[in-house]
Fold this protein.
Amino acid sequence: MEKVILVRYAEIHLKGLNRPFFERLLVDRIKQALNPIHPSVEREQGRIFVYGISGEQIPECVDRLCRVFGIHSVSVASCVEKSWDAIRDAAIEETRPYAEVETTFKCFARRSDKRFPMTSEEICKELGHELLESYPNLKVDVHHPKLPVTAEIRQNNAFVYTGEVLGAGGMPVGSNGKAMLLISGGIDSPVAGYMIAKRGVMLDAVHFYSYPYTSERARDKVVELTKLVSRYAGRINLYLVPFTDIQMTIYDKCPSTETTVLMRRLMMKIAERIAKDTGSQALITGESIGQVASQTIESLCVTDDAVSMPVFRPLIGFDKEEIVEKAQKIGTFETSILPYEDCCTVFVPKHPVTKPKVDKLRESEALVDFEPLIEKAIADTEKMYIS
Ligand code: ATP
Ligand code: MG
């Protein structure tokens, strides 16, 4: 009996006229995610089917599909000819592994091919009867069945499956433009990138390092985190910007209480320039109100003032605990907590301003001509393709 994976879309149905575009994009994203396995992926009447996979490949396929944004859920199904006998046999086979212990079930049927000689109700009734006959451990529970057994009769084939695995939801990456993630080695920024990518936004990423104050290892960690985010977000161009000269200059020439905020402004400026040159329409950070001194409302306003692009901060209202939970769920937490030095933490002032004023910060920034330093940093930026 051939096994296929049946894929249900997430929000795509909301998109009216754009629907074919979203569906094609989702098929592309699925093909990319399953690239090493190389199955055939087909779109058919509001569903996507993954064919041509062997039994051992199924768990990996399901795992990969559950990281593709735009997928609501998937089911591993037996694909059989459209005859009652074949559907019944498939339902008995699909149910067998669960029927070894006492459990409850309910049958569901969907018939998009109305020429099939039995109605959905008849299919459910007959299937229920057959399963009760075959397995003494099974009982029907129409309200809270532990085991839903579904038969879908479609144009070319029938599909029989038990249960479904929830996908990542969201919208296919690339359906909503591109944005530049400022990625540190911390817990927050990878989660922020995940959340924006989930809304269909393609990601690029930029990281600032201050060699020799930050180590090679800290850089590798950021590359690793970007890889983990790309398991969901697809290909990411990562820009590694040398930031030591700018940081040392701020440290030497500007008021010591303002170094962190100034550093953040310069990071944003450089990120915005790279973003503009490479087609990103917004910046993304992992900031949340009040988490640290540089994330008070005043500091966020001063940071925003440095750029004209919109800055997306999807974690703005999250507690650290909630962010950690999310990081664990998407699999970035363990890497994020490896010891590392971020360039932000290397030069932390003893008494940072917590209520910086835009005018004052603009003045402090004007103490130095940063333009040549910004240009040099961008010229020395290294680009990596992460996928
Ligand atoms: P994270 O856990 O993401 O490091 P954080 O709580 O440590 O965040 P900050 O260090 O103040 O907070 O950084 C706030 C945001 O600024 C980060 O979420 C990230 O988007 C960006 N950022 C910080 N350091 C860097 C860096 N070295 N390179 C690129 N972006 C950075
Ligand atoms: Mg940080």
Residues 192 and 339 are 20 Å apart (CA to CA). The two ends are 34 Å apart (CA to CA).
